[in-house]
Structures are given as C-alpha cells and as structure tokens.
User: What shape does this take?
Amino acid sequence: MEGIRMAGLVKCGVLEGIVTFQLPASPLTDHSNFIFKFNRSLFGQWIDPEVIMSKNQYMERVTLFKMDNPDIKISMEIYFNEQDQLIFDGYDIGKRVEDCWGDSDYEYTYTIEPNEVQKLFALLEVPNFNKHALLLEIKKRFGGNSAYSRFGDFMSANNIDFTGFTWT
Assistant: This one.
C-alpha cells in the first residue's frame, strides 16, 4: 500500500518551495516520505491534488476541460512527462461517442518535443521557461471543449512541430 500523497507550496521568509509528504499506508508504518523542491517561480498557492511528485521532479496535470454527463464523459489535460515533452491527453467515453465513432471511447493526444516547447514559451509570453506558468497560460488561452482543435490550430499556424494521435 502506498498511503496518501499530499502536496502544497510553503513560504518561509524569502524561500519558497513545493513540499510533498506521504502519509503511511498503515498506522504501524513509522516513516513518511518528505520531499522538498525549491521553485521560486510559484508562490502562495496550494497545488492541485493532481500534482504527482517524485524525488527529482514533479509532474503537474492541468485540466483544460472536463465534462461528466450520463451520455458522455470528456477529459482533456496537459502536462510535461519525464522526457520534458509537453503532452496533451484527451479522452471521451460514452453513448454519444459510440453513436459518432462506432466505439464507446475516443483518445486523442499531442506530443510536443522540448525544443518545440521552447517556442511556446516565447509565443505565449511565459517568462523564465516556467513550466507551471506555461500550463496555466495554455489553459487560459485554449481551455474548453474545443481545446484540442484550438491548441492544434495555434501550433500549426505558428510552425510548432508536434505529433498528433487519435484512436477509437
């Protein structure tokens, strides 16, 4: 059993950092995993519970759109993976998807390589190569039910190379 993982931002004077801790899986476990990573570009907020931490890095998933209706569920997220690729993950499931595509689920992704992500920082005016700020700026500009199309159109119009994939 892994236990419960929690994450938040801590400020102590001029130092700021992301701190995570893992509560033991059982009361008999006598240790917790404490990880602290300085990040001067974030401050004053708790991090979304979907933030996943590891010893050397964190992977934050920002939700661009989510819908949960009886006939369709839609989820679109964007995040950086372990190779520093920017990943857009979309997943639709339900009766409406089956009526449209002949299968009950539909997956769609974009993968943007790190050298192409550098162009996004400039185009979206995100300073200091701040990944967290880039994810939030993408959400601000492209979030919503048409996020996949709008973000793809933006990348194409601005000569950002990316790989798209869809599967039904």
User: Anything to note?
Assistant: The radius of gyration is 18 Å. The helical segments are 95-101, 114-123, 131-142, 147-157.
